[in-house]
Specification:
4 copies of one chain form a homotetramer.
Chain A lengths: L3 E6 L5 H10 L3 E7 L3 H10 L4 E3 L2 H6 L5 E4 L6 H10 L3 E5 L6 H14 L3 E4 L6 H11 L6 E11 L8 H16 L6 E7 L9 E7 L5 E7 L1 E13 L3 E5 L7 E4 L2 E6 L7 E6 L3 E3 L7 H15 L7 H19 L5 E2 L5
């Protein structure tokens, strides 16, 4: 197989980015854009006149020149579309989140394993130079013991009809967290409000608990007047501020911290002071994450290797989101991750 | 009574600011700085050589020239110091929070009422031009129905020995919230981590629930590499960003919002879009809030009127903090406000 | 003529943007990309496989399906390429600056006038919603008498081989200035340094003088560690800060100003104080300026009307740049605009 | 002599800061505040009731307990006040700029030398940790060859009656420049506008030329809607951005620069590209510069050593300002530094 024939399913918000990146990749040959809505179909024809647009998913799956499909449709449709593709013997890339439920994800993982097909989820942040640099700093123990991960991901966003804001925005932080640290959350607690009747929660707060003193907190919102993408990672030795909206200073590493001192006046008591240090802002490569992701999908297929954002990782993320959603419905009651049925 | 004789008790972090502002006020005569620690006492003598410094609180309370005391000592000592002052017939101003427990606050409120004395809490933000401008915008319905209050108040701060970070930082947001909106929270849920053994929580997240769809969330932290003081207030018609670290653009009013539209392609479904509008940044007077607070304390005493930050308000804030602390101990279990015993 | 057949000449930095926008416009049909460098040609074929790429400019000019050419090549080549196009009876759009000298611009203007062809320069800023909003504020006298225009346009940029930094960056400010105010500069003074032997100036400062007290100053630099695109416009009643790097708050209107007061202590002397007011940040449409420019080129051709960024405007801008370059060579000696031979 | 008895002359904008810092210094004893305006005198008595306020400068100079005077009055009065003090055998500290003319400065320098008295100018920036850190980076050749110094120092400021904006604001940059680099400017060119009749220039631009390719540019303005204090220092190896309004990130060191490459397509030509690197933000001590300045004045007196901001340095700065003012009057004609009569 020289080039991987791929069909991109769904030409809404994200689909065009996938088409553009797969077309720019020397590994892929974009054979079809699959889209049934007339408006989106017309849009696809205008932007990519040289790619065939089809509304017939079954026919596309029957095409031998199609070796893989990339699914960028609403979350609820991920499972049936991916299932059909795996049944047709195609490798599958799915937009985040992998499915609407952990059960569905488990089915897809088992199907892909049986058939020796690659199942990968497009958790794009895992392919950014920023997140990989932070991961290195943590792995090399430059930050020391980790204290917390605190993320704010808010903007005036389109309300999604089928998923709440956790599945749309917090999903990014859950994937980043999973990639950065080696431990899984034991329990999750979340609060949220829908504000508009009949719609899912647009404002939500989520805390993740671990077997030790590390804590993670995620603040997501489709109703904010300002766009914010800021994550703080506090460590014993150093702390990081990751501001994804900064064009050139995305990751700042602070040599700040706390010190334990003996208080002069009450010598029996431990006093905690703080320490201010230099700040380091490493230069980051500006490669587009989606291009890296596309390359990784290609090599996972060719080398039959487990992708970094495997179906299994996608499942574990969905387990966290399911627990959070259940907690939200029970007024923040802490829910065990993996324990939602 | 021409000038109100006042004694400032405690010359730590906040005491010097009180002394400076009471001295600058034409209504007050600062008679004593009460301080027992030798270092702080020496510091008081150097900075205010013309004010008498005393370690004998009882003698100060016995002085007829002292009409009022301002208490700026650690929280745990507020109650006994204020009780003694009220018993001696003095008006009392207490640093926030009023006391360590709702019960103590109730005792002080009753004592002050019986004796016809003024009991006021120094919730300084209530006297800033920023918070008062935001209150006006809300009261005049410029923002429409309120959706949420979301505040981040973090920095590399001194760990307090006797209170957790909620009592040190979230107390500000609880007071601002209480002043801005007319409703009280029904339940509170909070999570937090201590990180250092034997010390109170330095990182905490708190959600406040109301009888309607409004939600408030407060993120406080003594372990952040960057200082943040940012509050978002989301309304149906307008939204506000209050950034207290901005020297000249503290309050920004966004004419942004959401729109309910009928989706063209699926006309049976309501689609929610957003609307971007102008931003207005009102000029704010730069009066020091503490000076306004001092003037308000004087007029409350002279006119025997209820202060804006009365003992009762102080009590209601402590009730929220007590509920939050209990929730934190019970892994985020929602606790009814006013129901902690 | 239904669609205007156009050829884009030069596929370097700017050419691809022109191709993309002319292709997205319903008024144009992009017939050719003219490019002789093999690398750039290959790049054009990859990005726009459906557009014919040619190295033979004469053949393209001989094609009757080509009604207009858009020239995006190095400045020194603008004149011969545009001259040939006008001779072939084509409408011409030229990247800024129009030519390397005022004389060349005059020749092109005369040729276009004789032949009834449209000659337009792509001074893109004139088609942005930001600059048009500022122009409205000035024209409606909202700012009062204008005091100054002060612009900083710096970054770590590619050194140009054939033109100095004034012709590359200050050209934008000169065009904006010309569009915003109704007066022309009388004299220009400039200083600059080349730093690298045999290369044109990479750092330059330019002052523009008028027949009244208005002054303009432009700071341009290819050697700055940070990118800045900030323009201050000071008026008697209001002032504007135009920061082109701000995604959502590009134009801020300050109701600040100066007041003339009588000094209390020395009543015979006029004292000047300042006044701080509200700030207003108008919402701007996010239309791409190049799309607006393309539409304007089409309507100028079809209606045979003078474009906003006409050859004449292009000439006047080049006259300012010529005077500035001469001043720079004479250590800042003020040079009359239009007086360079 | 244990403590140096000092009199502070002038209690306007800066005087109170001098009094506060000399009082906080263990080396000084503030004996008098000299002030003749009734309002300012009353203000001095309120803020420093324990310091004697006097309107009789001669009597103060006659007091043997006064060993030094600090002059913080309008620039035009510096010379007569300093002359009288030196005649009375007092050490002298003068607010910047030292005098209104180079000639006056020369007289003071000669008088101080004859009498063995310390003559120092309060160029405060020279005592900041930020400027000293930058100096170290330059002296250790970390930046490589210096290319330019480009400073913007603008805000809505009080118009001064007796000096133009160069003498009020650019004076800071001239002093910083002189301290940072080892060379003196050969020529100066400046442009400025007064805008208000009968008042000195409120907006000015100044370029400083050297015997090599280094260039400095200073942009000062009392009419800006926003306050800016930003200096860029470009070097061959590294570049610095010094933003004095940043609370914690005042000095940023960029490992950016330019590279000389051979262009692939036209191999005979040198192509200049740029290089992006890490950013380093060193932690700075937060000592108040005025306190450091006061200590340096004390040690210069006691050790009879030349202060860093000596009368000679003050003279050289005034020579630059004189040349700039003359250039401004001659429409930017380059004027030799030291050559103004």
């Amino acid at each position: 197989m020289s080039k991987i024939g791929i069909a991109v399913v769904g030409f809404g918000y994200w689909g065009p980015n996938l088409v553009r990146n797969f077309r720019a990749s020397p590994e892929f040959d974009v054979r079809f854009i699959v889209e049934s809505k007339p408006n989106a179909q017309a849009n696809a024809r205008t932007r990519f006149p040289e790619v065939e647009t089809s509304a017939d998913y079954d026919a596309v799956l029957a095409d031998d020149g199609v070796h893989a499909v990339a699914i960028a449709t609403p979350t609820a449709t991920h499972f049936p579309l991916a299932k059909a593709a795996l049944e047709a013997g195609k490798h599958v890339l799915i937009e985040k989140p992998i499915t609407s439920s952990a059960h569905e994800a488990q089915v897809l993982i088992a199907m892909a394993a049986e058939r020796g097909l690659t199942l990968m989820v497009d958790h794009t942040f895992i392919y950014t130079s920023a997140v990989n640099l932070i991961r290195e700093k943590i792995k090399s123990d430059e930050l020391g013991e980790l204290y917390y991960y605190d993320s704010t991901r808010i903007n005036l966003g389109l309300f999604q009809a089928d998923v709440n804001v956790l599945w749309d925005l917090a999903v990014h932080d859950v994937s980043i967290l999973m990639y950065l640290i080696d431990k899984k959350p034991t329990k999750v607690s979340a609060h949220g409000i829908a504000h508009v009747n009949g719609h899912p929660e647009n404002t939500a707060y989520m805390s993740l608990f671990y077997s030790d003193d590390f804590i993670a907190h995620i603040n997501v919102n489709w109703l904010s007047p300002i766009k914010t993408r800021q994550t703080l990672i506090g460590g014993e030795k150093k702390m990081i501020v990751f501001n994804d909206l900064e064009p050139t200073e995305k990751v700042k590493i602070y040599e700040n911290g706390i010190n334990l001192n003996v208080d002069e006046e009450t010598s029996d008591k431990l006093k905690i002071g703080y320490r201010l240090g230099d700040i380091h802002v490493p230069h980051l490569e500006t490669t587009e994450a989606l291009a890296v992701m596309a390359g990784h999908f290609a090599s996972s297929i060719k080398e039959k290797s487990e992708p970094k954002t495997s179906g299994q990782m996608g499942l574990e993320i969905v387990e966290v989101l399911e627990a959070a959603t259940q907690s939200m419905q029970r007024s923040g009651e802490p829910i065990e991750v993996g324990g939602v049925n």
